[in-house]
Design goal:
heterodimer; A: alpha/beta; Rossmann fold; 2 domains; 13 strands; about 30% helix; B: mainly alpha; about 0% strand; globular
């Protein structure tokens, strides 16, 4: 396996007596989309800010393409592109000025084509404060990648955006990944992470409590399969025991079962429907979502947003 | 176009788009100049003798103390410095750009005042224009340094206003702008040497107008120069990229060291018997 692009080893960060990140380690390889997932205060932003050189770690080793973010901040600037969680742009800077200014400091020609790509070509003379939330995020992403960095760090890239803006940003992120860019993102949006990331680390109270690909994370739980069934007369609700079923619930007209033996559960359900002359409306067999896995890991005690 | 030129160009234009800065850097000094010129020459018949330095130095004071620091504090607390940091903009540029654009605007305002004061109010032109320019530039240097330092150490807008007024108000009252410091009681006259405007007026009076100096103008020049160097150095040293101040290299109280040259002048005068 080639050397990792980003290495975080035994990383710890404290704010006074509070330990924000507690001895975590992970590696990110070239072309990967790696997501840090967790509720507010889990340590996601702190981890990213230390990788960006904005904060100093209290322990451990951080490296981006062999560069220590704390010791070599200037070298780091050309290796990473960063979209911060909270926008930090002068209100009265225009879109064109922002691109000109940041490109100049990165010693590259202004990338007006990128502004076109993110749909801001008609907003070149618009001041930052007059842009919508989605336009601001897209501008920040364009600025973050204008110097073609091999590593892009996105902190809550779609927080607070409408559906259309999220879709556009997801498309841009996928495009970057297609170009071989390594992406590290933080999010508390499970669906977003499940869709975009190759690998995920779930952070809780500053510690990584689970890590792996979305599929690994969702299948390596308690090994439960989610079965949702809806029938015309809801006769399956009468069933008190089903093979393999450990949990059951009902939502939106569906009876939902979590089973360790999905084949046996489904067969029993269908036999019951046939036997009582009921009519099947819908039957779904799914692996649990990342959100369900997260709730399982945290015992349902942590809210994700 | 270099990064420096892009940055300066943006900063200058941004200053003109910022209503508060336009008010403090241009409209207020020019308005005060027109109103004060008309009123003060009526109230104080000798005011025309010091009208040009008084009004120009007032413009310097307003722009550097009331205008610039708040821009820095607001930008830092809004996360703009962090954004600049991750895009590779060095801290010296972040400090230099507002200072240079403020300097640019104050030079334009000063030129307007110097050109209009004689025909409008019969103001006395400096005998030695180069000496006047020296006093102006030294005051700008010292005040830009203090303004940057205020912008760096102040935690929020309210504190900025309080600290800036702590320099601005005494400068207006006892800094030699509205009345000669020779008219002040002894104790206040001694204290007035803590203020950059007192030294700038002393240099202007002595070297630009050829009048009697209350203190060697060269000592005043040295105080302003040393004060400016110390303030700028401390601003760079105490600079922080965000309001968490994790990267700040020392206590903000170190900023008080910028007043050392002025304090030494006061002490030297006290020891020397005034």
């Amino acid at each position: 396996m080639p050397d990792p692009v980003v290495t975080v080893h035994d990383f710890t960060k404290r704010y006074g007596d509070f330990t924000a990140v507690d001895d975590i380690s992970f590696e990110v390889h070239q072309g990967e989309v790696f997501a840090l997932l967790g509720p507010n205060g889990a340590g996601k932003t702190t981890t990213l800010e230390c990788l960006e050189g904005l904060r100093k770690p209290d322990g451990g080793v951080l490296s981006v393409m062999g560069v220590d973010p704390t010791r070599e901040p200037r070298r780091l600037r050309n290796l990473i592109g960063v979209q911060l969680q909270t926008s930090g742009m002068p209100d009265n800077i225009t879109v064109r000025e922002a691109m000109n200014l940041f490109s100049a400091y990165h010693r590259v020609a202004p990338r007006l084509d990128l502004l076109d790509r993110v749909g801001l070509d008609g907003k070149l003379s618009t001041q930052y404060e007059a842009l919508s939330a989605g336009q601001k995020r897209r501008l920040q992403l364009a600025l973050a990648v204008a110097h073609n960095p091999p590593v892009v760090i996105l902190d809550e890239p779609t927080a607070g955006l409408d559906v259309q803006s999220r879709v556009e940003l997801h498309s841009l992120i996928s495009e970057l990944q297609g170009q071989g860019v390594t992406i590290i993102l933080s999010s508390h949006d499970m669906a977003e992470v499940e869709k975009l990331a190759n690998r995920i680390a779930i952070l809780l109270h500053g510690r990584i409590v689970a890590a792996g690909s979305p599929r690994e994370l969702t299948t390596h739980g308690a090994g439960l399969t989610k079965i949702s069934i809806q029938t015309e007369r809801a006769t399956v609700s009468e069933l008190t025991t089903l093979p393999g079923v450990t949990q059951r619930s009902a939502r939106d007209g569906y009876d939902i079962y979590y089973s360790t033996d999905p084949a046996a559960t489904v067969l029993t359900l269908l036999e019951h429907v046939k036997k009582y002359g009921d009519t099947l409306i819908d039957l779904r067999v799914e692996r649990p979502s990342l959100e369900e896995r997260f709730l399982e890991i945290t015992g349902g005690k942590e809210a994700i947003s | 176009m270099t990064a420096f030129a892009h940055h300066f160009s943006f900063e200058f234009r941004a200053g003109l788009r910022n209503r508060a800065l336009v008010l403090l850097n241009i409209l207020l000094p020019l308005g005060f100049f027109l109103l004060g010129g008309a009123l003060m020459t009526g109230v104080n018949p000798t005011f025309y003798q010091t009208l040009i330095p008084a009004m120009v130095f007032f413009a310097v004071l307003v722009s550097t103390m009331l205008g610039m620091p708040d821009v820095l504090v607001a930008a830092r607390n809004a996360g703009i410095f962090r954004s600049f940091h991750i895009h590779g903009i060095p801290e010296l540029s972040i400090l230099a750009m507002p200072a240079l654009s403020t300097l640019f605007r104050v030079v334009i305002v000063a030129l307007i005042m110097v050109l209009l004061a004689p025909p409008l109010f019969g103001a006395e032109m400096p005998v030695n224009i180069w000496a006047f320019m020296l006093s102006f530039l030294l005051l700008v240097f010292a005040c830009l340094g203090l303004g940057l330092l205020l912008g760096v150490v102040s935690p929020n807008a309210n504190a900025t206003v309080m600290m800036a007024q702590g320099i601005f108000v005494p400068s207006m009252l006892i800094g030699g702008l509205m009345m000669p410091t020779s008219l002040l009681p002894d104790a206040l006259r001694s204290v007035s040497w803590l203020l950059p405007t007192t030294h700038a007026m002393n240099i202007a009076n002595a070297l630009a107008y050829g009048r009697e100096a209350a203190l060697s103008p060269y000592i005043s020049a040295l105080a302003l120069l040393a004060g400016g160097v110390l303030a700028i150095g401390l601003a760079a040293y105490l600079f922080s990229w965000d309001q968490q101040h994790e990267t700040r290299r020392g206590s903000p109280w170190l900023g008080l060291l910028a007043l050392l040259p002025y304090v030494l002048v006061v002490l030297a005068q006290a020891v020397g018997g005034g």
